[in-house]
TrEMBL record:
Keywords: Membrane, Transmembrane, Transmembrane helix. This is DUF2065 domain-containing protein. It comes from Luteimonas lutimaris. It comes from the Bacteria. PANTHER family: INNER MEMBRANE PROTEIN, INNER MEMBRANE PROTEIN-RELATED. The chain crosses the membrane at residues 40-59.
Amino acid sequence: MSDLWAALCLVAVLEGLVLFAFPDAFKRMAEQMQSMEARQLRAAGAIVLAAGVVALYLVRRLA
């Protein structure tokens, strides 16, 4: 369970880092996302999700 909390904390750190370091780029990205169809956002989310699962598997397997 502590691994789950650690992972969620890392997500917060990474999201905060993006907002801190690149606020204008984040605003532009959010505006572009508003114009995208839900289907496109779901596809992008599925790709990122799959890449994350594969990366997590590889990290756990190789560590």
